[in-house]
Design goal:
By secondary structure, the protein is mainly alpha-helical. The chain has 27 helices and 5 strands.
């Protein structure tokens, strides 16, 4: 029995088969050539060994071929193995020139009856091509199966998959002879929105790998920028959503396989736009395809469409998980705001609606420890001043941010307040809270109270004369030049004046403490100089 297995075949470096060279070379022209070459190199050696790389289907494919050879050229061909057997037969040159009724002839005969296959049979055969797609595609097998799938679909469905391009609207036909109509004639957007159930074929086609789905879409003439079909866009969205969970666990290479389909969805959404999708629908599309290798141009196009409808968004819509270490994707929201603001046709009411929305958004994202000051400023300053009638929402967001980021320097806190807040548009209650807030720098509080004082003086016409404490270093005088016979100020104005006066004295006390510290340090420096040599003298740093 040992002499029968006189040939070792290593398939794709994965598995070794021990076979009889006469049996396998009887049906394979390629193996016959390889064995003949190896015999010339290994004369006198009874057993020879050959390596076969890139064999379609790997060990599984070669095992089927071995069974065919050892069974005198007979094997049961089914819809699940015909694709693999066909590709193996082409690879090993198992043609009629080598042996009559060879494997290639048998698979071609089986494929000739593809017209009588069922819908599921075609799907099973297409699915089996996944592991050896390049061989199946180059041999024309995938194209033949896809054509049969579309023919079967056309026989059993009234749904139109694709719409004609503008250049062929008179009598649109694909390369396979399918005639298509505009999708709006069959399934208007309103009907699609109301439809809660999806077609059965959505689930059927979802078992296919992305490369084969691309083949189907290309055969329909709706791939990439050519996609103008609502039904096809809906299916691809459903397909990509189902694959997202699997892709998250995979590698970047697996994501890149879906890039073409993601772009196709984006082009369809951009073309159909507001007529077929709501703002929430478009935003959901962006979230799905952004995870699947979406191209930069398609992303910009989708964001331009979505950003123009930002006034329709809700707070929950904008709270998208971040991808760069942050809890939320602030960069995406910032880009959408810039698109919205750049539109000159936006009404004042819509702008104010977005202003209220962004203030709420800032309050939600402020506790994020990874949110940088620059990002907070970017979102807060992205809207014009006219978008906010009141800046209380911004102040609340700043207060939360300062509580969540206690390590910020005084300079950063001052920059945050001075750039984000319009003190004149703060309510009196917010201004009082700001004045008492220990996290707010004193100078900022003074500025806010001064702005409020000016607002109040418009009605009561008070005149405040302020003398800077820097000149006297210990004095701050606040003069009130009301006329004796003028009307008394309101209680709110009086409270505001007192708050301003308290803040001024707070600044005075801080400066007095600073000067005392400088005096102490100066005396310490003099005593140190008297005890050290002149060569080691150096000036003390300035503290204030």
């Amino acid at each position: 029995m040992a002499e029968l297995c006189n040939l070792q075949i290593h398939v794709n470096g994965q598995q070794t088969f021990f076979v009889n060279e006469k049996i396998v070379s009887k049906y394979s022209g390629r193996l016959k050539k390889i064995i003949k070459q190896e015999k010339g190199k290994t004369r006198g050696i009874k057993k020879s060994s050959i390596d076969i790389d890139d064999f379609p289907g790997g060990a599984e494919g070669f095992e089927l071929v071995s069974r065919f050879c050892y069974n005198n050229g007979r094997i049961t061909v089914t819809v699940s193995n015909v694709s693999l057997l066909h590709c193996c037969a082409i690879f090993l040159e198992m043609t009629e020139r080598v042996s009559s009724c060879n494997l290639l002839q048998q698979t071609e005969t089986f494929l000739d009856g593809i017209f009588y296959w069922s819908w599921n049979d075609i799907l099973v055969s297409l699915k089996s091509c996944e592991s050896f797609f390049s061989y199946a595609d180059s041999s024309g097998l995938v194209e033949k199966l896809v054509f049969s799938l579309l023919a079967k679909f056309a026989q059993n469905s009234d749904i139109i998959l694709a719409a004609p391009s503008s250049s062929s609207s008179s009598s649109p036909e694909t390369a396979f002879g399918f005639r298509f109509s505009s999708p709006t004639k069959i399934t208007p957007p309103s009907a699609v929105r109301r439809s809660s159930s999806r077609p059965r074929w959505f689930d059927d086609l979802s078992i296919l790998p992305p490369k084969i789905i691309e083949k189907v879409v290309k055969s329909l003439g709706a791939y990439g920028a050519e996609n103008n079909s609502l039904v096809l866009t809906k299916f691809l969205l459903y397909y990509l959503q189902k694959k997202t969970a699997v892709i998250r666990k995979g590698s970047l290479n697996s994501r890149s396989e879906y890039g073409g389909l993601a772009d196709t969805v984006a082009y369809g959404a951009i073309l159909l736009g507001k007529t077929a999708f709501s703002w929430r629908g478009l935003f959901w599309i962006l979230r799905v395809v952004s995870q699947l290798g979406l191209s930069r141009d398609c992303r910009i196009g989708l964001e331009r469409l979505i950003g123009g409808m930002l006034d329709q968004a809700t707070l929950d819509d904008l709270l998208v998980c971040g991808h760069d270490g942050g809890v939320y994707d602030v960069n995406l929201v910032l880009r959408l705001i810039r698109v919205f603001v750049s539109d000159d046709s936006v009404s004042a009411q819509k702008m104010k609606n977005v202003g209220r929305l962004i203030d709420k958004y800032l309050g939600e994202v402020s506790p994020d420890q990874n949110l940088k000051v620059s990002k907070f400023l970017g979102v807060a300053e992205s809207l014009p001043d006219s978008a906010r009638d009141c800046f209380d929402g911004v102040y609340r967001a700043i207060d939360i941010y300062l509580q969540s980021h206690p390590t910020l320097s005084s300079e950063e806190r001052s920059r945050l307040c001075s750039r984000c807040l319009n003190y004149e548009k703060l309510s009196l209650e917010a201004c009082k809270d700001l004045a008492k807030n220990l996290k707010i720098p004193p100078k900022v509080a003074v500025q806010a109270l001064a702005a409020q004082s000016q607002q109040c003086s418009i009605a009561s016409k008070p005149e405040f004369v302020y003398e800077s404490p820097i000149k006297s270093h210990a004095q701050m005088v606040l003069y009130n030049s009301f006329d004796a016979d003028s009307t008394s100020v309101s209680e709110e104005n009086e409270d505001l004046r007192l708050n301003l006066q308290r803040m001024q004295w707070r600044v005075v006390e801080l400066e007095r403490t600073c000067w005392e510290m400088k005096g102490q340090m100066s005396r310490m420096a003099k005593s140190k100089i008297s005890t050290t040599s002149p060569g080691h003298n150096r000036a003390m740093p300035r503290l204030c």
